[in-house]
Amino acid sequence: MPVLSEDSGLHETLALLTSQLRPDSNHREEMGFLRDVFSEKSLGYLMKIHEKLRYYERQSPTPVLHSAVALAEDVMEELQAASVHSEERELLQLLSTPHLRAVLVVHDTVAQKNFDPVLPPLPDNLDEDFDEESVKIVRLVKNKEPLGATIRRDEHSGAVVVARIMRGGAADRSGLVHVGDELREVNGIAVLHKRPDEISQILAQSQGSITLKIIPATQEEDRFKESKVFMRALFYYDPREDRAIPCQEAGLPFQRRQVLEVVSQDDPTWWQAKRVGDTNLRAGLIPSKQFQERWVWNDQPCEKETCDCEGYFKGHYVAGLRRSFRLGCRERPGSSQEGKMSSGAESPELLTYEEVARYQHQPGQPPRLVVLIGSLGARLHELKQKMVAENPQHFGVAVPHTTRPRKSHEKEGVEYHFVSKQAFEADLHHNKFLEHGEYKENLYGTSLDAIQAVMAKNKVCLVDVEPEALKQLRTSEFKPYIIFVKPAIQEKRKTPPTSSACDDAAATLDEEQQEMAASAAFIEQHYGHLVDTVLVKEDLQGACAQLRVILEKMSKDSHWVPISWVR
């Protein structure tokens, strides 16, 4: 076998080993596996990168200067004083960009070898009579963020113990603090006999480094179970209004329709979650699905647990009134559709969370159904018809059924499907209609078959329905994209009218505006959790332009949909 020199690189050694591998009758499979591993291109690239880094390390590189940020600021001052030429202005603009400044800060950090925070030495007055095997001293760097841990007082021993570690917080990142650890001191101050508000003050005032004396749990709790579940919130939540949360400052507020990444479900009562797209690494507490459902039914007063900014609390969970739950049923002010829509809201479903996943439409898949719902004044029919007239090859509408006689200028299957009353009622009996109604003793309805017929032509089907029909359409077959159209509400006239006629017109206008606003508020309250986007309509042309943009993004971008649609 050839002898390697000291200067041989790892990738050369790897190539030589590969060439020397010979199948053995007893170890043919193992030799074949090693040959495949050693022949992998990515492994060879890694070895070459390793050699390049070793060569660079042997050159003992030294930074030209240790403060590139200061130099850049000096240059910027000079350029600001005399920035006449375009090149000087361009250089000034480049030096002012946050990305370049961040690169210079990183350069200075590396040049000054300032990788770790500078911690002060341990205090000399630590007790010397403790058992080193049972007590540990933990030092954490705490900036403006909380430590990310909640603590409680043990009912039997009275000890202050760590109740919860927040994902991504300072305590979690350190890996030194665990659930069940007993807290004895904070910055040399004993906490065993401190009141909750005193511990709160100590923790809140601790900035920079914080030293904890901890007795480790006798049996260390399991590390966080891997949990990466995405939930769309179907209700508003503000921990400041929740009297049941262990610690309000540890809570995570969110809006309805916001997508949350649930990172821990270890606690069946309080999940840990982050808002998708949020740059904050620390997770916050949200009520679990089961806990939130229980609160909806149990509307009873509760005791507030004692807590502070670091999560200190004592006591038990007691059922109580959740003021953060804002989905009470209210009657909708006057509307021609009031009876129909209110009846659907008399027994509201338990709106908590809906598990979702990313979905992007792929070529060859049936197009998603586009559903328009609207408040009074939205005039969805003309918006839908204009979109189809502009691009009939791409868009289509479901042709409705009717029992009225066909007029001379009408064609079967174009304006309507003309059927007998017996046939209509038979289809109605077999639940073939999405929605139906009666007008001047004639029946009208939109069937699911009519929607499927448009989608079978590979067209985007546009339908406008009453909001109550959304539940029937939200299936993996249709994958509906739901758009809530509401008219822009004009502000009330500030100048007084000059005549009684104007006064009457203004009063009528104000009444119409109030009805449209009430209609939009009703839909938002009872069906807003099902909506994908909201379109505010000022005029038909502008609304069509908005709708075109929305539909283009729908076809190109990925969207959060119920996980059952993609399984």
From TrEMBL:
<feature type="domain" description="L27">
    <location>
        <begin position="6"/>
        <end position="60"/>
    </location>
</feature>
<dbReference type="InterPro" id="IPR035604">
    <property type="entry name" value="MPP3_SH3"/>
</dbReference>
<dbReference type="InterPro" id="IPR036028">
    <property type="entry name" value="SH3-like_dom_sf"/>
</dbReference>
<dbReference type="InterPro" id="IPR001452">
    <property type="entry name" value="SH3_domain"/>
</dbReference>
<dbReference type="Pfam" id="PF02828">
    <property type="entry name" value="L27"/>
</dbReference>
<dbReference type="InterPro" id="IPR008145">
    <property type="entry name" value="GK/Ca_channel_bsu"/>
</dbReference>
<feature type="domain" description="SH3">
    <location>
        <begin position="226"/>
        <end position="296"/>
    </location>
</feature>
<comment type="similarity">
    <text>Belongs to the MAGUK family.</text>
</comment>
<dbReference type="InterPro" id="IPR008144">
    <property type="entry name" value="Guanylate_kin-like_dom"/>
</dbReference>
<dbReference type="GO" id="GO:0005912">
    <property type="term" value="C:adherens junction"/>
</dbReference>
<dbReference type="InterPro" id="IPR036034">
    <property type="entry name" value="PDZ_sf"/>
</dbReference>
<dbReference type="Pfam" id="PF00595">
    <property type="entry name" value="PDZ"/>
</dbReference>
<keyword id="KW-0965">Cell junction</keyword>
<dbReference type="InterPro" id="IPR004172">
    <property type="entry name" value="L27_dom"/>
</dbReference>
<feature type="domain" description="L27">
    <location>
        <begin position="61"/>
        <end position="118"/>
    </location>
</feature>
<dbReference type="GO" id="GO:0016020">
    <property type="term" value="C:membrane"/>
</dbReference>
<dbReference type="Pfam" id="PF00625">
    <property type="entry name" value="Guanylate_kin"/>
</dbReference>
<keyword id="KW-0472">Membrane</keyword>
<keyword id="KW-0677">Repeat</keyword>
<dbReference type="InterPro" id="IPR001478">
    <property type="entry name" value="PDZ"/>
</dbReference>
<dbReference type="InterPro" id="IPR027417">
    <property type="entry name" value="P-loop_NTPase"/>
</dbReference>
<feature type="domain" description="Guanylate kinase-like">
    <location>
        <begin position="367"/>
        <end position="552"/>
    </location>
</feature>
<dbReference type="InterPro" id="IPR020590">
    <property type="entry name" value="Guanylate_kinase_CS"/>
</dbReference>
<protein>
    <submittedName>
        <fullName>MAGUK p55 subfamily member 3</fullName>
    </submittedName>
</protein>
<dbReference type="InterPro" id="IPR036892">
    <property type="entry name" value="L27_dom_sf"/>
</dbReference>
<dbReference type="InterPro" id="IPR050716">
    <property type="entry name" value="MAGUK"/>
</dbReference>
<dbReference type="InterPro" id="IPR014775">
    <property type="entry name" value="L27_C"/>
</dbReference>
<feature type="domain" description="PDZ">
    <location>
        <begin position="137"/>
        <end position="218"/>
    </location>
</feature>
<keyword id="KW-0728">SH3 domain</keyword>
